[in-house]
Amino acid sequence: MNPLNTGAFVPMKGVVVMGQQPFRLTLGQMEERRLFAASLLKSGWRPVDVADECGVTRGAVPQWCKALAQGGVRRLRRKPHQGRPSWLSASEWKQVARAFKAGAVRAVFPTER
């Protein structure tokens, strides 16, 4: 049975299915691709066919299989990026917001530009 003819493919949002794909996918699109691959793997697709269908290397799918086996779909979801901690406290951020709302002239600048 050819898994590509099952009609199970659901195209990802913002990704061109046929033809050229965008150079970079967003984090959300990559997560969606991993979750789509997980659904294909759970429905019995071979990892090689999943890699071809999702447009990834054949080495990526075994990593996803391992993550799926260790923690389920939760392990395939993207992790939040915390970023650098803020130098300003919550009260300082409120002060900045008030200054922006008040305008540049009230903040001792000569014009609103």
UniProtKB/TrEMBL annotation:
Domain of life according to the entry: Bacteria
InterPro entries named among the record's database cross-references: Homeodomain-like_sf
Protein name: Uncharacterized protein
Organism phylogeny: Bacteria, Pseudomonadati, Myxococcota, Myxococcia, Myxococcales
